[in-house]
Amino acid sequence: VAAAKKQKSLSDLFEDGVKDIYYAEKRIVKTLPKMAKAATDDALRAGLQKHLKETEGHIARLEKVFGLMGKTARGKTCPAIDGIIEEGGEVLDEFNGSPAIDAGLAASAQAVEHYEIARYRTLASWAHALGMGEAAALLEQTLDEEIAADEALVTMSQQGITERALDKAA
Ligand SMILES: [Fe+2]
């Protein structure tokens, strides 16, 4: 009798998810400097630079999570973040020099944050279910920073980025 293929479990899903977000964070860390450079709004540029520093910390936390799983840190191609970053790149190309560039950058950054928030929230909940409290705590710390980054983008948009895009274009 051939050995039955081992059933995949929640811990396999969790490991795949950690690899996916690790790949995503590594792409984000390379993309944020380009976005910050293109920003003309000082607060937006500072916000993107601050989040770059935080993202380096997110990568370090994920490496700790891999360690807690007894695995080597390794990414798995994430077509979702590739697509979000590709779209962000199009905004950069097409709106560079436009008064709407900051509004476009803030929107791209929000799409990235929302993807990350979705992933980290799920992974933290799975870590709890799997009895991995320490991993859950690390994932929740990052989740909180992603939520704060998203909220900062909302505030910046409300405090002028969107309006200035309108004014200068008029
Ligand atoms: Fe992150």
Share of helical residues: over 70%
Largest sheet, if any?
Answer: none
- Total count of strands: 0
Q: Please give the radius of gyration in angstroms.
A: 18 Å
Report the order of strands and helices: HHHHH
In DSSP terms (H or I, runs of 4 or more residues), the helix count works out at 5
Strand content: under 5%
Compute the separation of the termini in Å: 75 Å
> Shape, please?
elongated
Content-based structural category: mainly alpha
Mean pLDDT: 94
Bound molecules: fe (ii) ion
Uncertain residue ranges: none
Fold and architecture overview:
- With 170 residues, the protein is mainly alpha-helical.
- The chain is 82% helix and 0% strand.
- It contains five helices and no strands.
- It has helices at 10-38, 42-68, 79-95, 101-129, 133-169.
- It starts with 9 loop residues before the first helix and ends with a helix.
- The structure holds fe (ii) ion.
- Residues 25, 55, 58, 116, 142, 146 line the site of fe (ii) ion.
